[in-house]
Design a protein that fits this description.
- 45% of the residues are buried.
- The protein has 8 helices and 26 strands.
- It is of the alpha+beta class and 461 residues long.
Amino acid sequence: MRHARRRIVRRVTRLVAVGGLLLGGAMVAQAAMASETPPAAARPFASVTGGADPGAALVARLGTARTAGNWIGADGRPVVAVTDEAAAREVRRAGAAAKVVSHSMNELKSATAALRAAPRVAGTAWAVDYRTNRVVVRADSTVSAGDWSRMSHVAARIGGFVRMERMKGTFTTRLNGAQPILSTGGRCSAGFNVTNGQSDFILTAGHCGPAGSTWFADNQGNQQLGRTVSSAFPGTDFSLVQYASGKAGDGADVVAIGGGNGVRITGVADAAVGQRVFRSGSTSGLHDGTVTALNATVNYPEGTVTGLVETNVCAEPGDSGGPLFSDGIALGVTSGGSGDCRTGGTTFFQPVTKAMAALNVKLIVSAQNAGGAARQGSSSPAPSAPAAQGAVAPNAASPGSSAPVTGTAGQTLLARLTDTRNVGPGLLVIAGSLIALVATRYIRAEQDRKAYQRYYSATWG
């Protein structure tokens, strides 16, 4: 009876050990594959959506007379504002959420046109709030009581869906980031690297300096970076700085995010309301927030800029021109705003797609991530799952750098399998199972040897 129990124990132990080997192997394989392509929810700098915007497609199909914008809901689903139940049913059939509102996009745009036609007041800004179906007009601390009263009367004549808000701080450009670029006019931040096919450029803010401005990569003016060859401000806010060498370098697809890190840029797209975004600048580093409005208008002291992306991401002087991105997709360059990164604020961005179309340039992305096309234009669709999202080594993030980009994107399967941070638990399970197998084999052999000795001792006396 005792021998039978021992056999059962040995068999159970062997089965458990074999099961542990299989489990450990599965854990190792899963960890290796997960490190190769992390899920979107786990990737840093990721948006809640990827690829094409289904909400925008529904708005385009239904038209601005029956819709009033779209945004990304808290659950990640697209939401479309519609003006009738028939449109709402069509939106729901397409898999999006519908919100029935009182005012169409045509009415909201008519309201913003009336605001633009009124006498200009520096220190004011307005944008359409899709979620509340209102036009929100903001006035900073520099707007006088008289100007505030006059704008309030303009808003009242338009209708009750125009909301007036007083705010602290002032609307200013963020001249003074990504990496710093310096000229006699002040300090800005490098945005994204672009090309026209013959030469490479930095796409940055237009208010950073007029055409002819010379930029340096150091405070002493020893490392000439390039010269502004095209600038648009006010009205819009973008410019091109042509590299002095004519080329951006091997690391042209990476933007710096501070702390010695960078993010690889894999495509370009338009921002969406509700989208989580990240901004980098040479003054304040990396900060994140959400897109709160599109096609915003800001009346800076220097002039009016329209068509901007409004966000609740903070920015400070020197951050101008720095990149706005999400999920490795280029969205905009920093224009200006109010507040700072201690108390928060509102920041506006020039959309990258509109700037590149006006300048006839294309975004520089890596051949690996663009499917072999290293220069991507604004008409190219944004990849839905960028291959190399996340933080990478920063040695290619400085303007004009020729150092190669390193990071997890180029890891081989062998490197991932030997990375104990990824596969450590699985390896421990495998090691424990092997020890159990060896131990059961040794115990069985020792028991057999002793039984053999006892048998022959009894037989031969």
